[in-house]
Design a protein that fits this description.
The structure is a single chain. This protein has 331 residues and is α/β, with parallel strands linked by helices. 32% of the residues lie in helices and 23% in strands. The N and C termini lie far apart (52 Å). The chain has a 7-stranded mixed beta sheet. About 3% of the residues have low confidence. Bound molecules: zinc ion (2 copies).
Length: 331
C-alpha cells in the first residue's frame, strides 16, 4: 500500500498465474466512506491482500461505498463478484463495458466453429488451430456477472472527498475502457490504456468494435491534450511523462504498421503469413511467431488483424478474398 496524495492510496492485488503479477487499484477517501478504482482478480489470495491493505489504511470492505471499474477484464472486474458479499458499494462502469458483460453472459460469443472459421479464413493451417484452453463456452466463467448499478458515457465528474474525477472514455483495449482525470492534482488514473512499459493487447474480436486499434489511437490523442503530472496505471509502476509515453506508443504502432507493410512488398498475404514474418514482443528482445505458445499465436494473429483493419480504414492496405481466404496488399 502506498499513499500517493492525501487520501489517495494504491493497493496491489495479485493476479493468479500472470507475469504482470498484480493489478494496481486505487482507493480514495470520500466524505462518508471510500471509492475504489478497479477491484482485481477474483481469488481468495486477492481478497486477503485487499483486506490486509485496507486494514493498513485503517478501514475495511464495509466502508467502500462506490467501485468504478476501468473495464471488465478479469484482473479488474473479477473481484467485484466477491466484494459484493462484503459491501453494498455502488458498481459503476461504462455503458459499453456493461454491454460486453451482458453479451458474454447471454451469448456464446465465440464458438469453436467461429474460431475454426476465422482461423481458416486468415490462412492459418488446421494443425495449428488453438484448441486447448480456447475462450469458448467450456472455459467461460459460469458464474452470473455482477450487474453494474450505474453506467457512464464519459464526461461525467465524480466528486470524491476533496477530489473531482472526470471520466474519460478511452476505447481500444476494451470498448468501454475509461480513464479518470483529476484536474487540480494533474493526476490520471490510466487503467490498462497507458501503461509505462508494455502496450495493452488490442485484438479484433466480435465484441471489441470494428476498428479497436483506430479507436485506441484516437483515445491516446484524447489524453494527449490533458495537463498531467502523474499517471497511476493499473499495472507496472507510477510514472510522470504521459506525453512522452503517448509518443512512444504511437511510434510503436506506427513501426508495427511499417513492418506489416514491408511483408506485403512482394505481394498479397494472409494475416497468418504476416504474423509468421513479423517479430513479437519486441519490448523483451523479440520472439518469432513459431516460438509463441499456441494461445499466444492466436492473439498474435488477432493483433495483426487489428492493425490490418486500422490500415484498411486509413486506406493504406486493401483486401480481397480467394477461395474463402482473406488476403491483404498495399493499396
Ligand atoms: Zn485489460
Ligand atoms: Zn489489466
Amino acid at each position: 500500500m502506498i499513499e500517493i496524495r492525501p487520501d489517495i492510496y494504491q493497493l496491489q492485488i495479485p493476479i493468479y498465474n500472470n507475469p504482470l503479477g498484480h493489478t494496481n487499484i486505487y482507493l480514495i477517501r470520500d466524505n462518508d466512506g471510500y471509492l475504489l478504482i478497479d477491484a482485481g482478480w477474483d481469488s481468495e489470495e486477492a481478497l486477503k491482500a485487499m483486506q490486509e491493505q485496507l486494514a493498513e489504511i485503517g478501514t475495511d470492505l464495509d466502508h467502500i461505498t462506490r467501485i468504478i471499474v476501468t473495464h471488465v477484464h478479469g484482473d479488474h472486474y473479477g473481484l467485484v463478484h466477491t466484494l459484493k458479499n462484503y459491501t453494498d458499494a455502488e458498481i459503476i462502469i461504462h455503458r459499453r463495458e456493461k454491454e460486453v458483460l451482458m453479451y458474454r453472459y447471454t451469448t456464446v460469443y465465440e464458438t469453436l466453429s467461429d474460431i475454426e472459421e476465422s482461423w481458416t479464413r486468415n490462412g492459418a493451417p488446421q494443425n495449428e488451430l488453438p484448441v486447448p484452453g480456447l475462450p469458448a463456452r467450456d472455459t467461460r466463467r459460469l458464474q452470473t456477472p455482477v450487474i453494474p448499478d450505474r453506467t457512464v458515457e464519459g464526461g461525467e465528474i465524480l466528486s470524491v472527498g476533496n477530489y473531482n474525477l472526470q471520466i474519460i472514455w478511452t476505447p481500444g483495449h476494451a470498448p468501454g475502457h475509461i480513464c479518470l482525470y483529476e484536474k487540480t492534482g494533474k493526476m490520471l488514473f490510466g487503467g490498462d490504456h497507458v501503461l509505462p512499459v508494455i502496450t495493452p493487447n488490442i485484438s479484433l474480436l466480435p465484441y471489441n468494435g470494428d476498428n479497436p486499434l483506430g479507436e485506441f489511437m484516437d483515445s491516446l490523442r484524447t489524453l494527449d491534450i490533458l495537463d498531467v503530472e502523474i499517471v497511476l496505471p493499473a499495472h507496472e509502476n507510477i510514472y510522470n511523462d504521459l506525453h512522452k509515453r503517448i509518443e512512444e506508443i504511437t511510434h510503436h504502432h506506427h513501426q508495427r504498421n511499417l513492418e506489416i507493410k514491408a511483408t506485403l512488398e512482394e505481394g498479397p498475404k494472409t494475416a497468418y503469413q504476416i504474423s509468421s514474418i513479423i517479430t513479437w514482443i519486441p519490448e523483451s528482445g523479440g520472439i518469432r511467431y513459431k516460438d509463441l505458445p499456441p494461445m499466444h499465436k492466436r492473439m498474435a494473429v488477432l493483433e495483426t488483424l487489428a492493425h490490418l483493419k486500422a490500415m484498411l480504414v486509413d486506406g493504406e492496405v486493401k483486401n480481397s478474398t480467394e477461395d474463402g481466404i482473406d488476403y491483404y496488399e498495399i493499396s
